[in-house]
Write a structure and sequence with these properties.
The chain is built from eleven helices and five strands. It is an alpha/beta fold. Strand 2 and strand 3 form a beta hairpin. The longest helix is centred in the middle third of the chain and has 24 residues.
């Protein structure tokens, strides 16, 4: 694995530069084990690129070391699962929040509290995404202004109800989570629902989650990496394989050709 990864330095450099030209990126990270320690494996990419990196820690220092988010301009958009570190003042891109993750949190709150408003918001999101998909399939490029205004009013009404319910929730178990969710929705409302006004914006971060799912599957089989260095070798090789697959290139041939250079 070390030998193969060592041949991919130029590929990784080119992939890095290509990522910086994208107007939309997805990113996510997960914890994996290496030599009995918890380390971070991170993904940046889109439909055509997959860039993986491994770090000893899941923190701002490692993100800065990656050099990707820092290099993005204010025209770039980044989809994530509410990684609050993305809102640091050093970054200037537009943050987009995953609605699939939000809907899971809304369902959790509804189940734990019995309150109707979280489920109502979840259903509003699902119905609006369906309407958007139907409109896109029919060649539409945006909702009518009246549709957007109606959505925004419904959202405002639901959030008002959620805020009232959360304030009255005295449970030490469900109360803090419900209040934190309501606070987050108020603070990041535009980041969660920008897709209603702009059909070029995705609704979920499922692409990044799928990109890391294979890593989690590997961990179930292999258990752990021998070291953080071997995790980095794996990240380079997986970057090549996944990027090739996304572009219809035989990954085995690509790795073999790289090895011959």
């Amino acid at each position: 694995m070390k030998r193969a990864a060592g041949k991919l330095d130029l590929f990784m450099s080119d992939l890095f530069q290509a990522l910086l030209t994208r107007n939309l990126l997805y990113w996510d990270d997960t914890v994996v084990m290496a030599d009995k320690k918890r380390i971070c494996l991170r993904f940046y990419g889109d439909e055509g690129m997959a860039y993986y990196v491994a770090h000893d820690k899941k923190d701002m220092e490692s993100i800065v070391e990656d050099g990707i988010l820092d290099a993005l301009t204010n025209e770039a958009r980044v989809m994530h699962d509410h990684n609050s570190i993305n809102y640091n003042d050093r970054f200037c891109f537009l943050n987009l929040e995953c609605n699939a993750h939000l809907q899971r949190n809304l369902q959790k709150t509804a189940d734990e509290t019995g309150h109707a408003k979280p489920k109502e918001l979840k259903e509003l999101i699902s119905a609006t995404i369906k309407d958007r998909n139907d409109l896109i399939s029919a060649g539409g490029i945006s909702f009518e202004d009246s549709y957007v205004e109606d959505f925004e009013q419904k959202l405002t009404d639901i959030l008002g109800g959620m805020e009232k319910d959360a304030a009255e929730n005295k449970s030490i178990y469900s109360g803090p989570f419900e209040r934190a969710l309501v606070k987050r929705l108020h603070k990041y409302r535009e980041n969660y629902f920008a897709w209603v006004r702009d059909f070029t914006i995705p609704t979920t971060n499922n692409l990044a989650e799928r990109a890391l799912r294979g890593v989690k599957t590997k961990m179930k089989v292999a258990g752990q990496f021998s070291s953080s260095r071997s995790a980095n070798y794996y990240a380079k090789i997986r970057s090549c394989i996944e990027t090739c697959r996304r572009n219809g290139i035989n990954e085995i041939t690509a790795l073999y050709d790289t090895d011959l250079e």
